[in-house]
Amino acid sequence: EVLLPLASAAYADDPTQCLNRQLPGSTLNRRFEIPYNSTGNNTCSAFTFVDESRQMIGLVFRGTNSDEQLAYETQAILSSGQMIFQDGGKVAPYFNNAYFTLWNSAGLGCNVQEMCNKYPNFHLFITGHSLGGAMAALSAVHIISSGVHSSRRMSLYTFGEPRTGDEEFARLLDFSVAYRVVHNNDKIPHIPTQSMGYEHHGTEIFYENDMQPGSPYQTCRGDEDANCSDK
Q1: Which pLDDT belongs to residue 68?
Q2: Where is the Fungal lipase-type domain (predicted)?
Q3: Mean pLDDT of the chain
């Protein structure tokens, strides 16, 4: 009920209003946006926040922001193979490059490191929608692997996340607190396909309704449960 609106807030130029509404007393730390292609029309974005009263820090990734970016993203994913992810497994090059463009070139990594150093005992929540969900998953693995923050104080919640990497990459998220929320009518979680070597990570939370607060959902078994979004 809190993280989905925050994932939506990442699409705003200024997420402060939504952040204050969902987590009164929290503070926007910094927002990042950087061009991802040569024309500058496609950008990647994320923001970080701190909530001292609830002892939580947050990292929120924006999803695909335009029809042009969606077309570019889909073509790039379907026409390219996989690449080795530096922290384990193989992932889609588009997701990898988008994430590290934000993490390294835009300065997101330094900002997250500073937050985690300042608040080592706070719980880190990472979230994102669609493309943002893929980058959030990459970030969770990278942060744990790099020792930036403890997996015991970190949770990943993604919404409409596409398949991000292969089975080895998915296993890296299965030991941590990771939830992948999927709606029955969303096509994005079904790409890239398993026949291309991709595998979802757990734990899938599957909705077949309007996802209003209190709506029933199914907690799925494994990473590709045939009784959930794969059916």
Answers
A1: 83
A2: 59-194
A3: 93
Q: What integer is the mean pLDDT of 204-219?
A: 92
Q: Is residue 229 part of a domain?
A: no
- 38 versus 217: the higher-pLDDT residue is 217
If one counts the domains in the chain, the total is: 1
Is residue 85, in this structure, part of any structural domain at all? Answer: yes
pLDDT tens digits for range 73-88: 888 888 889 999 999 9
7-36: average pLDDT: 94
DSSP the chain: --HHHHHHHTTSS-THHHHHHHSTT-EEEEEEEEE-STTS-SEEEEEEEEETTTTEEEEEE----SHHHHHHHHHHHHHS--EE-TTSSEE-HHHHHHHHIIIIISSHHHHHHHHHHH-TTSEEEEEEETHHHHHHHHHHHHHHHHTSS-GGGEEEEEESPPP-B-HHHHHHHHTSEEEEEEETT-SGGG-S-GGGT-B--S-EEEE-S---TT---EEPSSSS-TTTTT-
**How confident is the model at residue 39, as a pLDDT?**
55
Range of the domain at 146: 3-219
Give me the residue label for tokens 């996340």. 161
